[in-house]
Each structure stands twice: as structure tokens, then as C-alpha cells.
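sorry for the late reply, my laptop died twice this morning and i had to redo everyting from scratch. anyway the thing you sent over, i finally got around to it. pasting the sequence first so we're on the same page, its 296 residues, then the predicted structure underneath. double check i copied it right bc i was rushing
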Amino acid sequence: MTWKPTRESAKLLLECQNLIGEYSGSITLRQLFYLLVESGAIELNEASYRKVKNLMINARKHSRVPPTTFSYNTPKVDDTIFGDAKVYMERCTHDYRIPRTFNQPNHIEIWVEREPHRTFISSLVAEYDIPVYVTGGYSAFSFIFEAARRLEASVERSGSPRVLYLSDLSPASVNMFESQVSEISNHLSLTREEVDAIMLRVGLEPEHVIKFDLPVLEVLPSTQKTALFEDKYSDLLEVFDIPRIPVVEIESLNPIELADIISNVLFSLTDQSILEDVAVLEGKNRAILEGELNER
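ok and here's the structure:
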């Protein structure tokens, strides 16, 4: 069955293809939507988002863009079968890698609210081998319990654990973050000040909305559920003529700008000389493995 988009849809499809190519296919559907808003191709509303979503469904079905462009939640399963042990050893030697977190002074992990965003963030931090976890909003007990165990173990291995937290700037997201801070504090028997040194909310913050002139998706009325957000942010937002209770999605931040924000934080928390030492050690070990393989 063929698919022939309308002239308007074809024009929008071309813009989508250009953006997907520019960002190497690593962006989420929501990020693509905001990039289109930024370029003036569509308006900022849910009707436009549904239009882009449906367009991308058809485009993937009919191979106008790669079907895996927005793939996520893909299990890392290696189903390769080796009938030859030497071929297997060659594969292991080729893939040998020392995680760049090895010997680092800080344990670092990243938390995001949504699975599609995890895929994108993982691509940004792959060179550091930093894990990215999905909180799913108000985190389940098992998520917080396992996170607390990781953070406790990291103190014994290295030094200061750090959780880099990325979410929307909205009352709901702020309430979720505060809930997780409270739960981690209880699990680890730490004070709020101690947990604040561990869990770092690196985005979105009002400074990003102001600096990058990010679009406000929605303006909410003041209710009991917005009280925490208003107390923390509203006065500052009002100074810069931004609604007191906005909803600004993290996907509205240009992927390049988001990558810069994360890179700057990681640079400040990692020892660059150790990164270089690990790369050198990896090369030496791989050479040893290759030498032993050739002797067989």
C-alpha cells in the first residue's frame, strides 16, 4: 500500500527529515516537535504535536525516515551464536572496554522521567559509561530502594555519589523531585542538606527558560498542588516576565544546548586525567589480549 502525503504534509516531512538527519536520529519525537516549533514550521499546541506524531508514523511505515528513529526500551540482548571459540575470542577482544567510570572519585548516575528521553540522554553520555534511569514520575518503592543501595555501595567504592536529575519545569515535576529527595533521605538516614549534595537538579531550571527563551506549553492556575513550585520559582519567573506557574518541557531545549549543559556538569564532576589513564590502560590490555589470541 502506497502513501502519498498532501503538499502541506510533504513540506513538513522534508523539514522533519532534515532535522532527523542533523541530529543523527537520536532525538525523541517530542524534541522533533519542539524543533519544528522553533523553526516556525508548526505552532505550539497539542493538535500540531498529534499531526507530527501521525506524520512520523506514516513516514516510518513507508520508509521515508528510518523505522527505528524513535525506538526506545530496546533490550540489550546479544543473540549471536558462535560455533567457533576463536571467533568468539576475537569478538571479545575487539569489544574489550574498561568503563570510563573506573577509578573516578564520584559515582554518577542520571535520572529522567520518561523512557524516550532516557534513550536520548544515554546517547549523550555513552562515552562516560554513565547509567541513565527512568523514574516514571512518582517513583515506586522498588526504584528508590535499589537507588539507595547503589548510592550506599558507591560510597564504599569511591567517594561522593551524584544523581543528576533532568525533568520538565512544572509543578508536577518539582513535586515528584521533592518526593524522591524525601524518600532517598529516609532510606539513607540523611538530612535534607546531605541529600541536596547528592541529588542535583540540573535541568530544567528557570535560568534555562530565560537564557534559551524556551516556549511555555501551558500556564496553570494556582492550587494546593502548585504551592511548592510557586514558593521556589514563581517570584523569579515573574521578574523576567514569564508566567508564575508555567509548564516548560525539557524536550523544548535544543538537543545541542542540552548536551552542553550535561557535558559541563560531567566535566566538573569527573577527573579528566583518570579518564585518559583508563583509555591508555584499555589500549594496553587490548594489545595483550590480541597478542595472546595470535599465539593460539
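The mean pLDDT is 89.
thats about all i looked at so far, will dig more tmrw
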